[in-house]
């Protein structure tokens, strides 16, 4: 056990493909696929199992796990996986070392020592563990209520994220901490407000002509498209624009580098918007027909509206200053939004008159509360099939065999109204008085003008001419004949790690929309839609038959008084507010926690969170490892690694791939799949998972079989609309859900087909849905039932209305957010996208004297994924310590040299990292690495306090809408760590005995982490 099974040279290069691919024949989900196929081979023959890598967490890279004698020996890229192009990064290859790591958790354990000390773990049975959990949870719930128990979950490996969500229902708690709150969540939150859930995802796989890479380095690690795919997209684009404070790996190859000050992304996005508007580079038809830009704003009326549906199906009341028929006449519809028609006189001459003279309306009564014209314009003529008329898309540089998709032609207004975007108009309202009204676009134009390039230059540090040039390059269509823009914007984590998180994302969503890049080839398309349960919602709170807590439970959610929009969103409680409640009992006690792969280090101030964890009465942690967080747990439960489990998988983003995570080897000892653990808990608590008699607690086999039952050769149910003179009729087509003939009756059959075929393209699976662009025009954008829609095979649930438009209160992409306006009626400045200076930044008064440098963080590291892989020898050998990037001129000023350990400090905490001199950051900026801990430190917390960056942040600095922690763009000071200012007279961090952490690549302790193949029974 003192040598590596694969050389470092092999590790850092892409592994050569060796080993024959053997298809699966009738594999059982209860055993590993390789075990089933191994009977076909002998000796040193190998089995290559096609599966989906989860080495980083978001990207669905197709890989092959090579299994020999029942043991996984390496991982290779799957060249047949078009969405990842054979990519197999360092994290993927290192997954072998993770699966067979000697420190893997194998059995349930209980604490024997007081919290704050080494836990003294003692092995127990699953029965004892579950009985202890239920007993403690029920005792705490009986004493304080279900809300006193919180749930926590980490990044979306999917199976932990969704199984955790159903536990909330089981315990009747509204409180859950999600990594989602600071990782893609703000983007999903914002786009659900103003367009459609997760429209932040961009279809880079079809290679846009202009590739805008904003606030991330996806060439290094996970993202919607990652590593090799990002490099390919950037290199093939006619223009590559990088927007990043740091010169990222691909940034040096970019045509434009928008070198902005950290935390000023929203200001730059609004500057781009100003350029697009002033140069009239926007898509006029899209803006007028599919956004609420022409809707009229009447500032001197009392806001009013109508009830509409939240993301979870419950109702809330829209209250808006947007002009509605109900404002014009008594008894008028609150759903009919008025616009001024520039063509009203021409139409009148043709015998077409509007009910309100020059004003016409759009009816957003999407549920037919008052009449059935909801979803259509006054007097509109519309036909679903005509809306689909078009041609095959014609993107350049697609991979051989990649499906282009169907591109409907832009559908003009019929009749030919021309909603005004500019001007001020007068209209008599039901109060008998004349009122001045302006289109939303006028207000939006004025907001963008506040950030014109000359102003934004002072904010961002980018010369105005460079801002204008990059915005013009993005907005000017390189090939106008396509009828759509140059591509979407791949905006990433940096834009949501601060106090402008939601407003930043709104600015990007609008910018993509007005330039004609929403749901177009290479544009922002949202999450891939397929008929399989690719998000495992059958394992979640959306499981068929799963009961939901009473409505009053959600009203107790911690943080909603401080963040009213979280009560609309409902998918997380604010982490800061929850840790505060644990420590103070305000607004009520929170005394217990259930965690599935979550991590207190990812958000909020880590020191505060650690203190809260130590004070809990009872804490259960499900994990692969001993981690800083489960050092505070009372019970830890072992879970399966991604090569040890089965799961349906579809692209989380817009890559459009459908496949599977396939169980390649058996999990060690008593480790279990997360959903199995939660299902067992439900059974023991007598909480019914489904409403199917005799199958209230289905096993994983049933869940997996159920997940693929709507994959069929038949065309699934869809609706076509025919509207004549504003009067709609509709027809249902396709096979009803309950009558679908599944293409594969079981999960095993599906896996067998996957091994033979490889990854499928969603465009081919559902050509009318994912295979078609401009779904807002054809109705397919509303083919599924709102957010997280899971098609229910038995009940036919989850089917949308197929009306054209978006899932917003106005059925338009909302430049003026009615959700924001309704929840913050006193904050007019928030109703449109806005930007403010980050707290504690360089403009924060006298702080800059003591803390002169601006800190950013969160960059991607090739061998790590957030807090993961620090105990994998290949990874740690290559990157043994956390690095802080500092400009060489700044380093010289502070007497810092390459490789020095340095202290970084704020008034909230201080940490140590190693100086990495790099001209790619400005002289007044440093770039810190995040979520560092040291597995080799065998003490409570595993040394997170040495280098964990979120100890530096202000616990109270948050986005006012989503609660996102302000993780970047705050001021710090830096100085060299010396023997005189370091514990144990050692600049290298040490445990309480003075033993240094692993800080060199030749540390012999790395060999202690080499894979162990024995003892997994």
UniProtKB/TrEMBL annotation:
Residues 45-103 form the 4Fe-4S Mo/W bis-MGD-type domain. The keyword Protein transport does not apply. SUPFAM superfamilies: ADC-like (SSF50692), Formate dehydrogenase/DMSO reductase, domains 1-3 (SSF53706). PROSITE patterns: 4FE4S_MOW_BIS_MGD (PS51669), TAT (PS51318). GO terms for molecular function: acetylene hydratase activity; iron-sulfur cluster binding; metal ion binding; molybdopterin cofactor binding; oxidoreductase activity. The keyword Metal-binding applies. Transmembrane segments: none annotated. Keywords: Iron, Iron-sulfur, Metal-binding, Oxidoreductase, Signal. Belongs to the prokaryotic molybdopterin-containing oxidoreductase family. This is Molybdopterin dinucleotide-binding protein. It comes from Paraeggerthella hongkongensis.
